[in-house]
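Hello again, I could really use a second opinion on something today. I owe you a coffee for this, so here goes:
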Amino acid sequence: MIEVVRLRHVADVNPPSPRFDRLSSDAELTFLPMEAVWPGEHMDRGRVRVKSSVETGFTRFQDGDVLVPKITPTFEASRSVLVNGLINGAGAGTTELHVLRPRSECDGRYLTYVTHSHPFLKLGESQMYGVAGQQRVPDDFVRDYPLRLPPLEEQRRIADFLNAQSRRIDLLIRLRIKQNALLDSEQVACIDTELLTPGSSRARVKYLTSRITSGPRGWGELIAESGTPFVRITNIARNGIKLLLRDLLRVQAPSGAERKRTRTKIGDVLVSITADIGSVGVVDADTADGNVSQHVALLRPDPRACLPVWLAYAMHSSPVRDSLRTSSYGGTKVGLSLSDVSNMRIPVPTLRDQESAVARLDKALSDIENLRSGLEEQVRLLFERRQALITAAVTGQIDVTTTRGADM
């Protein structure tokens, strides 16, 4: 019968760090902000601090500790790590970490896998406290978590098995992500092929539009549960020209000149001018009669000169995006000015030729997006498979001495 114990009986929770304490004040150590805390090869150990700079206001840890993010959504994202190879054997990092130090009867790798298991994550999520967006897993949850504790040798066998299976699954995930990146290149190639036709006349964007403007300042403070759509950079996809609606906010827009100046209409082309420079989207029925943020340029195509989707594809082409990015890095300037956008030169075939090219591009990019969706679904299922294997192994649902990953 495998013993089940409270986690605090086999690991010290948030203990002091003797190795940290023994270092001289000018000794170097590893520094881990939350963005550096990732499982496996994604862990960023390259940040270095001297001890005196992190003696107060930071969490201390040492080689062999298991770090468990305590704040949402990082906890639910299963980003716990076993740290080894720290500079001088010690480190400091964000205060949003629980530190678990396994004792002699508990293998550190096994304990790490327990923190990645479905029961640990779901039960921890249910016990979070605090305001929305700042909820945290309490110390008591971690200390009192019921841990299945097989003999040490079996813990090591389980960890070896999960290490091997995780490597296989991670390899498949990396391959799918690489394939997804290749689709990005294919998309760019499709757009460039249609737009960079030799002999096409070219014109500056300001001569093809009736309005070029950007959003008003300070409207982020007007966000409300209801109101008019408020399109931000977050809503402009890096791939394609369809706006993303999942994080679309709304504002109680005041009437007046600013509302009228930045009001969106179907067919307006939106361009990111501060982050993800050159990302483009086209306003549709879901985002019409809204407003854009100050970090987004709004272009209103002249229907006598170009189609909205043609303008969007042209702004998305690699020569234009490269030029925009180059403009954004000049001198001390951060981001693009409206002048940078309005003076971009793009090809302008006849409206009939634009229609034909847009139809071909829509079909080609739709096929690419279908492939992308399939790859993303495969990645999601691989993550689920890895967590299912971990959960089955640490909860005793499988015997790792007789089970192969392919059997699961």
Summary: Residues 152-195 form the longest helix (44 residues). The chain has three domains: 3-149, 151-198+349-408, 201-348. The longest strand covers residues 97-102.
